[in-house]
Design a protein that fits this description.
CATH superfamily of the largest domain: EIF_2_alpha
Distance between the termini: 53 Å
Structural class: alpha+beta
CATH architecture of the largest domain: 2-Layer Sandwich
Strand content: 5-15%
CATH topology of the largest domain: Alpha-Beta Plaits
Largest sheet: 4 strands, antiparallel
Order of helices and strands: HHEHHHEEHEHHH
Strand order of the largest sheet: 2-3-1-4
Oligomer: single chain
Number of helices: 9
Helix content: 55-70%
Length: about 230
Amino acid sequence: MEQDVNANEIDLMSLLGILIRKWYVILGFTAIFFIGSLIYAYVALEDQYTANASMMVLVSNEEQSNEQNFNFSSKLVKTYTELAKSNIVVDQVIERLDLSYGQENLRNRITVTGVQDTIIIKLSIVTNDKKMSMDIANTMVEVMQEVSSTYDGFDNIEILDQAQLPLTPSGPNRMLYLVIGIMIGGITGVGIIFVTEMMDKTIKTHKDIEQKLRLRVLATIPEYDVPEDQNNAK
């Protein structure tokens, strides 16, 4: 049992020694992937801007108590979150702003969430143009109001906050791309070192003889440098 543990320790130490001896391979691949992720993050990717708007669902029924009106408004929040991504709303937003986005493209840029235990709905739009993000958010709220007013009992959505022009990009997270690039580069370098070592069948040390040829090494001749003056004397 102790021999197996010692063998494992020796193997781990030898693997660590290989990685240290070939550090330049790991460093090289890390640098390559870092440069690639740097170019991708800062050159290929465009800035993204998020515009936020919010609405309230207000139900005012004199036959019901304030608590009943609030509970009914809370239940309608989910209905309005689905309405925001409906075809009728998305199509009208595209038409009014003359957008080049298709239905699915625009729908994927929309995030609509109801704030838990409230009657507030938050709407977020993400595009590569700050003004376009703001215009889409505000237009979508207006369209939702108009569409809901055509149905009995659903004309109770009010704008709480209009979308403002986003001043700074909300994405992408370029540092995350750099970190991922460094990690993938390092893992790739380590993997290539291990693969090349596994494919290398040459004998380098007496341990290779014992492991591959199943022969016991009785003695080894150490390498040493002979001074030049001794060679000349011969």
